[in-house]
Each structure stands twice: as structure tokens, then as C-alpha cells.
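hey m, so remember when u said the C-alpha cells were messed up on ur end? i reran from scratch. heres the input so u can diff it against urs
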Amino acid sequence: MNSDAESLSTAPKPDDSIHIVHEALKYRKEEVSLPYLMGVSGEAFRFFYNRQQVEKGIRTTFYNPLRTASKALGFEHELVYDDTFQVAWDRLQKNVQLGKIALIPLLDGCSFLIENDNPNTVVCQNGHRHEFSFDQLRKKWQRVDGFLEMGLNGYYQFILGARPHYPKEREMALGAFRGASKLMRSRRKISGCTMGISAYEELISHLQRIMDQKQDTVKRYEIAKWNKELLRQCLEGRRAAVSYLEIVWKDFEGEELKHLEKATVAYRNAVALLESLQTTFPSLQFFSEETYSNSKGNYSEDSQLMRQRFALKIPAFSKIWQTQSKHFKFSCQASIKLLKKLVKFETDGISALEDVIRVGEKLKM
């Protein structure tokens, strides 16, 4: 067992909450594939964007997929809130000693406490184990907002209980399609993040606005952050969507299958476009130290940006900046074209899933 609690990564990975549910289910000997879990939880179909805080979308609605997945799969579950760490710690120890799996949000991502053979051991993504003391866990356990990020701020535990019933796969799939429709059609904002189709439109608008702004490395640097974990999260989700639709194919028939095939094709096309975006969208490489040959050593992001702005006053670097500005604008223009196509395929995919729901409801009558 690795007892070095500080060895966990410092930045959350995409979809950590759903990955750790998958890890918890494997621990419980439940045979649920990750694409299937992402499908029924809605993670395969989600997309959030916040132009003010580009990286925020990756951690929006932390507990929502946990609740959705547990409910869809027939698991008993409970979201518990405590205002202070001491009370949360006492509750956590009690839950684990009772044989309950408790999922908690760490600064390094979502993790869960294994059952009562060692109540201080956290199991993280990919099954890695870390033993935490009271003080170590107090530093790592995040205070977060509640369900849909709109509840009280405090210490939350998501308790995964027994599985008293196994819902029919067809009904789970139809429920997943309804959830996907809500995620992609909604015009609401959560924690400042736009959702679904509107989020894509927000990203396009942001690119259009920023590509002509002169000498603003900070804003360009910020939007380039999207071409990292957030884009990878979205790509992982759409790949899971394709796999999930292929898995549930057997549960539908006739006209339903025609619409399901359309949806699958649309999401395959979305995957191809997202893969293209990885090489087209402005990236952090644009701001690498290669830009300024005399920039050596380790610097913070802010100090690098300050040095780049100062360098613009030097003729040689100013010329380099002009060249890179043209490249940045070209990348934005090419990305906007891809994103507009992506909006079409996302819309086609959701419309096709809504048609599956419509036909399925007719068959019930």
C-alpha cells in the first residue's frame, strides 16, 4: 500500500467523479462498463463552458452524475452534508465501519473510503490506495457546494448503498436519452457555466470575439486552456456515447433502430471533429518558451505572460508576435468552422435520441 498521501496528483482529471464510481462498482464486483456508466449518468452527453473561467466546466455538477448513475442502476444512495470537518470525519468513520462505501471529493479528484478493513484508506482512480491521517484528510477534503452546485457549502459524502433491484436496460436507456436531451437543450446556467448546445455557441462566440483582440496574451492564453483537459473530457464523453449507443442497440427494434443509428452516426462524426479540434484549436504550446529564445528556467504562468507583454516592446519579438497573431487568428477561424459543424452533429444526435423516445412512448400505448 502506498502510504504517501501527498503523492496524489494536484489537478483533478476529467470525469473523476464518474471514474471513481466505476472503481467503486468494480470493488463491489458489479459488472458495469465505463461507457455504460457514462451513458446512464449523462456524462457521455454533457458539455459545459464558462468564458470567464474556462477551466471551471470540468468540475461543474460534481455530485449530479453520481446520483444519476446510482438511481439509474438501482443502487440505494445518499448525499450527506456536514458543516465542519470534525463532524464529517466522525460520520465518515461510522459509515465506513458499517460497511458503506463513502465517496468524498478530494482536492486531487474524487475518491472513496474502502470498507471497514481499514477505514483510513482512500481508493482513488485506477485502484490506487493511499492511507490518510485525520490531519492529512482535513487538508485534502474539499468544501464544495451541494447538488447541482447550488446547495450549502461544506463537507459532503456520497454514500453508495445496496442494489435492491436491477432496472430493465431498455428503460435505463430511455432514461439516459431523456437526460441527454435535458443536458443539451437546456438554456440555464450552473455556476456560471452554459450547458449543451448553448455552451458550444458560447465557445464559438468567445473565439470570434478574442481572435481580433490585439496584444492580449492573457485572454488568448486563457482560451487556449480549453484545448487540454476540457477538450479531452468532451472527447472522452462522446466516445463513450458512441460505445453506449452500440451497447443498448439490442434493446430496441424497428423504427427505433433507424433513429438510434442516426444518433450513433452523428456522435461518431462528433468524435472525428473533436479529434480534429485537438490539432486545430489554439493550444498552450502557442505560448511556449520557444517563442522567446532567451526565456529559460521555470516560471509561473502569470510571470510568463508578463514577460511576453514586455517582449512586445522589442522589435525582434514584436515581429514574432505579429506572425503568431496571424497563426492564432487562423487557428480560431479553423476551429470556429469545426465547432459549427460539431453543433450540427450534436443537434442531429440529440434530435435522433428524442425520436427514439417518441417512438418508444408510442409502442407503450
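this time it looks ok to me. The longest strand covers residues 77-82. if urs says something different then somethings off w ur setup not the seq
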